[in-house]
């Protein structure tokens, strides 16, 4: 048994805010304080140190076809950031790797762990691509993984919706999709819009009928939110709303929240959806209106998708949006493609510049959203890696949130008109360590239904991070002193000391398997693979590289 | 005036990444602790080489039996002489100075080079002066002189600068070139100038050209004399004698502003 003595704990799931307490770890779990008869094999004195659960990133593009396209498109990203292999002796072997915005799988895992992250969720896995996504995630060491299955522009679903199918049938299809693709949640990207793009539509408003199926994005969101709720998934429908990046899209975003009709809904990278059309340049911040709407509606949660300045690459399932963005590609090369006529993907390299008015205002809008949403349980820290910035910039972002002087100093460096347009300087809020622990640990765990992660209570998986309490929060969060994964010490002083392999999390919803009959016919008639080929068995996930499958049961609600 | 000398220690085998080993970095007091790569793993320079200190602007590397990648990568000034063969990426992204390779060079030598002189006494591999994988432009300035032959894809996507080759080039010489000059005394294999946009291929022997090259007769081009005079000072015999040349324009599939020149008969 390991004793972590005298650490200052921030464990919001149990309301613990900076309490000095001992933690006991045994067989990979946090356990209650044992009696005097139990032998303590090892002990660490953490006096003055900050102790949190392992961080959880609930929206990071780390696997699936689009990351491979991004890697293939940007060899310069790899040339510029090479990491040699290193032999850790008893700790195993660290593979060589490379990449800044689209790092290789191994490097992704090592870098996440070295920042104190112990679980990462890939938000855009197309069921037809699931096997590849799992193989790729299986290659990512150190962290637990999971993926959200992408629906909403697939032909089978749009046909069901257009035919006015029974919500129970739709729920069965959604349940089957989750099960077949070993997913953790459902994501919808530009609802119906990816499909409409292929019918030569270049923008699809929330209440605009799809040119072929006749259904609207609002109906798509409503039907999927209902199915996700009825299946009893912990994580709400994960929505990448329509009109990403378009000035004036804040109205769409507010209407999208309403489209859930009171059911839980998660709006992702909301920074890209909080734009107005005020001012000479017809581009302004609507962060206040969006944040107020989130504050008012308890069924809504969001992650920010903060942008940070520098070179990155945007990778998205939103072919319509990425086709629109391609003219901003830097360097000037891009890919937009269809996948199985069911979805798509677009990869556009981007360089965000602080002296560019639009980029500077995007930066300020993201920070405004962080500071204006009052409940840290409903706003998550993301950069939509790599779309807003690579995940390695999280420590910098945390410092921007926790340190007002630092934030204002950075504000002085951006495009002066953007700084003048933004109300960021007037926002005095500074995040506390407790709030950071909420938004990076407790809240994502709760949102995803990870009962054993994101907290330090007895029974929790011993994913524990120990930080030196440094006034420079960027240095503090960039280099944890210790990271434990399932009770094993994996990182010491911000460097991996032991290579481990994380588990895969997937939901196991109940649904009527009778859906396979029409699906089988559908696959035989229209698809390039058989239905049986799409399905990924439980043991196959481990063959893909995950250390184990962690199933999450769901309790079905009747609608 | 003596050169700084690096000599490979006995018993070292494998691939050594010499990126970062430049004349100016080796005069630092802690030069021996400079991190280089051996088979993809970081090691200190002193573990692989013995270092004899000398001038800041001149470095001689003596190494045999290992593959030396990235020799002179991103070099900006001074003189680096390699006694032996180079691996891949010799002189990659060079910005100045002189890199001399007494033996052969591998693939991707002088790719993304911007300025300076790269001299190869032996032969060079594929993708000499070409674009690095995924990049839109190759060599963008400077001079490369190869005494022997070169492999395929010489000057692929090259943008500016001069490449002199006394031997023969492989396939697709000058493919997708944007601009610049290739002078190859021994001629080249098929697909010469494939996708050529601008730039000049000055070949000692007429190549097999595709249908998208248009023969434009014989022209008297005084600049060929100037080129030869300039080139002979670096590598004699790379540019053919005389100013009269048979000229083809192409690649017409790409706008056709490039040219292929060979000596006019008689």
UniProtKB/TrEMBL annotation, chain A:
In this chain the Amidohydrolase domain maps to 43-497
Its Gene Ontology molecular function terms? hydrolase activity, acting on carbon-nitrogen (but not peptide) bonds
Q: What is this protein called?
A: Formylmethanofuran dehydrogenase subunit A
User: The organism sits in which domain of life?
Assistant: Bacteria
Q: Which organism is it from?
A: Parasulfuritortus cantonensis
Pfam families per record: Amidohydro_3
UniProtKB/TrEMBL annotation, chain B:
Q: Which Pfam families match?
A: GXGXG (PF01493)
Quote the Gene3D superfamilies the UniProt record gives. Glutamate synthase, alpha subunit, C-terminal domain
A molecular function (GO) term: transition metal ion binding
Parts forming coiled coils: none
Might you name a Gene Ontology BP term for this protein?
methanogenesis
Please list the residue ranges annotated as the Glutamate synthase alpha subunit C-terminal domain: 56-181
- Protein name from the UniProt record: Formylmethanofuran dehydrogenase subunit C
Task: Name its species.
Answer: Parasulfuritortus cantonensis
């Amino acid at each position: 048994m390991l004793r972590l003595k005298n650490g200052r704990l921030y464990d919001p799931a149990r309301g613990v805010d900076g309490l000095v307490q001992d933690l006991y770890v045994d067989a990979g779990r946090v356990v209650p304080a044992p009696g005097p008869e139990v032998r303590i094999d090892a002990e660490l004195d953490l006096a003055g140190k900050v102790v949190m659960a392992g961080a959880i990133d609930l929206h990071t593009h780390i696997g699936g076809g689009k990351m491979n396209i991004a890697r293939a498109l940007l060899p310069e990203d790899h040339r510029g950031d090479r990491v040699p292999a290193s032999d850790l002796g008893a700790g195993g072997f660290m593979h060589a790797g490379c990449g800044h915005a689209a790092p290789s799988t191994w490097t992704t895992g090592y870098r996440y762990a070295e920042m104190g992250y112990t679980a990462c969720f890939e938000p855009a896995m197309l069921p037809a691509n699931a096997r590849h996504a799992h193989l790729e995630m299986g290659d990512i060491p150190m962290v637990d993984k999971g993926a959200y299955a992408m629906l909403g522009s697939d032909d089978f679903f749009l046909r069901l919706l257009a035919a006015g199918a029974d919500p129970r049938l739709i729920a069965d299809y959604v349940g089957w999709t989750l099960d077949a693709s070993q997913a953790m949640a459902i994501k919808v990207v530009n609802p119906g819009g990816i499909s409409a793009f292929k019918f030569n539509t270049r923008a699809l408003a929330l209440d605009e009928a799809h040119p072929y199926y006749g259904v609207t994005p609002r109906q798509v969101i409503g039907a999927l939110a209902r199915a996700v709720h009825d299946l009893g998934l912990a994580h709400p429908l994960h929505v990448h709303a329509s009109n990403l990046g378009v000035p004036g899209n804040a109205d769409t975003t507010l209407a999208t929240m309403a489209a859930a009709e009171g059911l839980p809904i998660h709006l992702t990278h909301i920074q890209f959806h909080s734009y107005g059309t005020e001012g000479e340049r017809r581009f302004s911040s609507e962060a206040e209106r969006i944040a107020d709407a989130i504050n008012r509606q308890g069924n809504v949660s969001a992650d920010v998708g903060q942008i940070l300045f520098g070179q990155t690459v945007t990778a998205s399932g939103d072919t319509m949006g990425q086709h629109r963005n391609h003219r901003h590609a830097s360097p000037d090369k891009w890919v937009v493609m269809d996948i199985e006529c069911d979805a798509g993907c677009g990869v556009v390299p981007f360089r965000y510049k602080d002296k560019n008015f639009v980029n500077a205002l995007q930066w300020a809008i993201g920070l405004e959203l962080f500071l204006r949403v009052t409940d840290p349980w409903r706003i998550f820290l993301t950069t939509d890696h790599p779309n807003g910035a690579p995940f390695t910039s999280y420590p910098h972002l945390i410092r921007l949130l926790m340190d007002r002087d630092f934030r204002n100093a950075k504000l002085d460096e951006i495009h002066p008109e953007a700084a003048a347009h933004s109300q960021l300087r007037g926002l005095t809020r500074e995040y506390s360590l407790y709030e950071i622990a909420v938004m990076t640990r407790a809240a994502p765990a709760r949102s995803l239904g990870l009962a054993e992660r994101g907290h330090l209570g007895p029974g929790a998986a011993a994913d524990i991070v120990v930080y030196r309490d440094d006034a420079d929060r960027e240095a503090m969060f960039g280099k944890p002193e210790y990271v434990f994964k399932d009770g094993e010490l994996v990182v010491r002083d911000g460097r991996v000391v032991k290579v481990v392999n994380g588990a895969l999390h997937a939901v196991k919803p109940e649904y009527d398997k009778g859906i396979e009959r029409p699906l089988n016919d559908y696959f035989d008639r229209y698809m390039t693979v058989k239905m049986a080929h799409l399905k990924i068995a439980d043991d196959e996930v481990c063959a893909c590289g995950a250390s184990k499958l962690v199933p999450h049961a769901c309790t079905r609600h009747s609608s | 005036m003596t050169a700084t000398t690096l000599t490979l220690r006995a018993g070292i085998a494998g691939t050594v990444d010499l990126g970062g080993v430049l004349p100016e970095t080796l005069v630092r007091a802690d030069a021996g602790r400079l991190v280089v790569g051996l088979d993809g793993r970081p090691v200190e320079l002193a573990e692989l080489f013995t270092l004899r200190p000398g001038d800041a602007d001149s470095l001689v590397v003596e190494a045999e039996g290992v593959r030396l990648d990235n020799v002179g990568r991103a070099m900006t000034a001074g003189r680096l002489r390699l006694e032996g063969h180079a691996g891949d990426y010799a002189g990659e992204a060079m910005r100045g100075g002189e890199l001399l390779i007494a033996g052969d060079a591998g693939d991707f030598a002088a790719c993304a080079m911007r300025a300076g002189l790269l001299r190869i006494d032996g032969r060079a591999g594929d993708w000499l002066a070409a674009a690095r994988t995924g990049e839109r432009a190759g060599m963008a300035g400077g001079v490369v002189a190869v005494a022997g032959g070169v492999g395929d894809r010489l000057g692929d996507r090259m943008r500016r600068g001069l490449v002199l080759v006394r031997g023969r080039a492989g396939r697709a010489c000058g493919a997708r070139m944007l601009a610049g000059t290739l002078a190859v005394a021994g001629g080249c294999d098929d697909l010469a100038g494939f996708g050529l946009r601008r730039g000049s291929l000055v070949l000692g022997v007429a190549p097999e050209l595709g249908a998208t090259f248009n023969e434009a007769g014989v022209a008297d081009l005084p600049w060929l004399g100037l080129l030869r005079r300039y080139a002979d000072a670096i590598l004699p015999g790379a540019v053919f004698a005389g100013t009269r040349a048979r000229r083809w324009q192409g690649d017409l599939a790409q706008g056709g502003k490039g040219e292929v020149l060979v000596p006019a008969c008689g």
